[in-house]
């Protein structure tokens, strides 16, 4: 049988809700961190390709990659 008082049960419930909130915030931070890492990796690769297009004087590729870079910046809000 359950020997816990009403106040003890309420405290336990409050602690569980607090833990759930903390887990949600932690998951949100992790998701944000992973998104930022993904953005940085994509941008670095794209910037490297843009540099190569500039070095080879490939205007068409440069323009296409520049548009792609703008789209990545929009997607990640930068």
List keywords for this structure.
2 helices; 78 residues; rod-shaped; mainly alpha
Oligomer: single chain
Please bin the fraction of helical residues.
over 70%
- Average pLDDT works out at 88
Number of distinct helices:
2
Give the strand content. Answer: under 5%
Distance between the termini: 57 Å
- Count of domains: 1
- Structural class, by secondary structure, is mainly alpha
Anisotropy-based shape: rod-shaped
- Largest beta-sheet details: none
Give the strand tally: 0
Alpha carbon gyration radius: 24 Å
Taken in chain order, the helices and strands follow as HH
Runs with pLDDT <50, length 5+?
Answer: none
Could you explain the architecture of this structure?
- By secondary structure, the protein is mainly α.
- The protein has one domain.
- It is built from two helices and no strands.
- Helix 1 packs antiparallel against helix 2.
- The radius of gyration is 24 Å and the shape is rod-shaped.
- The N and C termini lie far apart (57 Å).
- The model has no long low-confidence stretch (mean pLDDT 88).
Write the layout of secondary structure elements.
Layout: H1 6-55, H2 59-75
How do you describe this structure in short?
This protein has one domain. It is 86% helix and 0% strand. The protein has helices at 6-55, 59-75.
């Amino acid at each position: 049988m359950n020997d816990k008082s009403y106040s003890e049960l309420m405290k336990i419930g409050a602690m569980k809700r607090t833990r759930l909130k903390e887990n949600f915030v932690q998951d949100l931070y992790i998701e944000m961190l992973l998104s930022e890492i993904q953005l940085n990796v994509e941008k670095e690769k794209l910037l490297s390709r843009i540099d190569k297009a500039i070095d080879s004087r490939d205007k068409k590729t440069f323009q296409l990659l520049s548009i792609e870079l703008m789209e990545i910046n929009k997607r990640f809000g930068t």
